[in-house]
Design brief:
Elements: E1 17-19, E2 23-26, H1 29-40, H2 45-59, E3 69-76, E4 79-85, H3 95-100, H4 119-130, H5 135-138, H6 140-148, E5 150-151, H7 154-171, H8 178-184, E6 196-197, H9 200-212, H10 215-219, H11 221-232, H12 239-243, E7 248-250, E8 253-257, E9 260-264, H13 271-281, H14 292-312, H15 323-326, H16 329-336, E10 355-362, E11 368-376, E12 384-385, E13 390-391, E14 422-426, E15 429-437, H17 442-454, H18 460-465, E16 469-473, E17 476-480, H19 485-493, E18 497-501, E19 509-515, E20 521-525, E21 532-535
Parallel strand pairs: 17-18
Antiparallel strand pairs: 1-20, 2-10, 2-21, 3-4, 3-11, 4-7, 5-6, 8-9, 9-14, 10-11, 12-13, 14-15, 15-19, 16-17, 19-20
Helix pairs in contact: 1-2, 2-4, 2-6, 6-9, 13-14, 13-16, 13-17
């Protein structure tokens, strides 16, 4: 008998996972097993990443979906490549249009924040460029779970219920949102933990994506369905917006951090913030992890990097600053001088937490993938395209309506993006993929787990287990309940506005796979979610 699947009164401990062949780490056990299934069929790490990502749209729809965006870094044949599959704002929307509808800032729900979905394009591009198995075969596990259903895992059920209650309050009165409730609360409520949920609509859409290598989504039947729904319900997204989209292969950015190369994707993502903060921090010596000076310097460096990032990061075609300039040694030294014993208060406003999924894969040939995808605010905009199961993202919420802001809304422009995959190398040889999902927590999580591994020599699982801090705005810093209270008090004395949180969901959820010198993989998975590692 299971009385409460969310109650664990006694501390539990995960140990490091090892594998001599292949490994998949992600936030949901069934998705990790889907990736392993593809590896055992002869697929490589890229095939496994696609299978895992597609399955996550089914088994963790609270954090991602077919209608979102995706980013990846792929280590293959000794080279690291990056994929940006984030979509732009529709051509039919601009600041004046939004303000004419009575908004002074971008709304969270409805058509205004909907941008072109990039996830199906990401899967197809990854398969075409680096996959070994047919695209249709790689998507089979996700289609099976959508058709046959699966029981909700504990953390998934928790967030599903919270989303249902929020959407019922925010969206329950508008007819255009009824399709979300039909798909995600078919019994008139959120499905319970352990209850079976399935979506035939989702399965049919995945089948069409698989059969056409995502062409149907951008230039076929699915695109027509999306455009028709948009037109009927006052949307801005049309067939031309979808047809014009294509994923972009990009060169990742890196810094040297104590002899390791830390890699992030360039803007429009916020990985630049993690790199800049680490670049500042490497000018300090850290002898111990759990000291007030360590945490003070981490927080202050992160704040400085965010103040720059929130000011300049946007669609790279609209940026006025070269990201490499922010990563120069001279600029890091200049920013480092601003850190003193007292708290500083940089420019950016409040940083919210959001929903995303992250996964890492590795195969027997040494190929590895760092992949992340998201609908942004949990299920996204609240709009589900009828008959498809596609929940459309609300990524455009991050646009500014200030015409002088770098990230101001413009037709066809990509917005500041929170989701970032990470990768670590040493002497340009792969160590492995890592990531910590969670909106603006992501560069903060990257900073903390990288330092946990490099500065404080924690293994991947211990690096993820360690209590985290999260800066929100100004002097406000949130600490997990497990964070040492004497250090919280010491940070308060330095001027930080310290708040302890009993909920771990806002501190990010990470995965990590390191390749050892003997070729063995060592993986860590997130204790703050239904994390799992599948391997052989």
């Amino acid at each position: 008998m299971i009385s409460d699947p969310l109650s664990y009164p006694y501390g539990s401990k995960r140990t490091l996972t090892y594998a001599g062949n292949s490994m998949v780490a992600t936030s949901q056990p069934l998705a990790a097993q889907a990736g392993l299934e593809i590896l055992k069929k002869g697929g490589n790490a890229v095939d496994a990443a696609i299978a895992t990502a597609a399955t996550l749209t089914v088994v963790e729809p609270t954090s991602n979906g077919i209608g979102g965006d995706g980013f990846a870094m792929v280590w293959k044949d000794g080279e690291l490549s990056g994929l940006n599959s984030s979509g732009p704002a529709p051509d039919g929307i601009d600041i004046e249009t939004v303000k004419d509808k009575g908004y002074q800032e971008m709304p969270k729900f409805g058509w205004i924040p909907v941008t072109v979905p990039g996830i199906p394009g990401a899967w197809s591009a990854l398969c075409e460029e680096h996959g070994d198995l047919p695209f249709k075969e790689v998507l089979e596990p996700s289609i099976r779970y959508a058709k046959e259903g699966y029981p909700l895992s504990p953390i998934l059920g928790k967030y599903w219920k919270a989303a249902y209650e929020s959407y019922k309050k925010e969206l329950g009165g508008e007819d255009k949102f009824k399709h979300w409730f039909e798909v995600f609360s078919p019994a008139g409520r959120a499905p319970e933990i352990g209850e079976i949920w399935n979506s035939e609509d989702h399965a049919r859409t995945l089948e069409k994506i698989a059969e056409t290598k995502a062409e149907s989504f951008y230039r076929g039947e699915i695109a027509e369905n999306i455009a028709e729904f948009s037109k009927e319900t006052g949307g801005f997204l049309d067939e031309d917006d979808l047809a014009d989209f294509s994923p972009e292969w990009v060169d990742p950015l890196s810094i040297d951090y104590r002899g390791y190369e830390v890699w992030e994707l360039p803007p429009n993502g916020q990985g630049l913030i993690a790199l800049q903060a680490l670049n500042i921090l490497k000018g300090f010596d850290f002898s111990h992890k759990d000291t007030v000076e360590t945490y003070h310097k981490q927080i202050e460096s992160l704040k400085l990097a965010f103040s720059d990032g929130k000011k300049i990061i946007t669609d790279p075609e609209h940026m006025k600053v070269d990201p490499e300039d922010l990563l120069s040694e001279d600029y890091a030294a200049e920013r480092r001088q601003l850190i003193d014993q007292e708290v500083i208060e940089p420019e950016p406003g409040r940083l919210a937490d959001r929903g995303t999924v992250y996964l890492a894969t590795a195969d027997k040939d040494g190929n590895m993938v760092s992949y992340i995808q998201s609908n942004y605010m949990g299920f996204g905009s609240g709009l589900v395209v009828p008959g498809t199961g596609i929940a459309l993202q609300n990524r455009g919420n991050t646009f500014s309506l200030d015409t002088d802001h770098a990230n101001c809304l413009k037709p066809g422009k990509k917005t500041y993006h929170t989701i970032i995959p990470g990768f670590l190398t040493k002497d340009r040889d792969a160590i492995g993929p890592f990531g910590v999902m969670g909106g603006y927590m992501q560069p903060q999580g990257h900073l903390q787990v990288v330092m946990n591994c490099i500065d404080f020599e924690l293994n991947p699982q211990a690096a993820l287990d360690a209590p985290r801090w999260r800066w929100e705005e100004g002097k406000k810093v949130h600490l997990e309940k497990q964070f040492p209270h004497h250090l919280g008090k010491a940070l308060s004395r330095k001027g930080h506005d310290i708040n302890y949180s009993v909920h771990s969901g806002s501190f990010g959820r990470g995965q990590m796979i390191w390749k050892l010198e003997n070729g063995v993989y060592a993986g860590g998975t997130e204790p703050r979610t239904d994390g799992h590692i599948a391997c052989w």
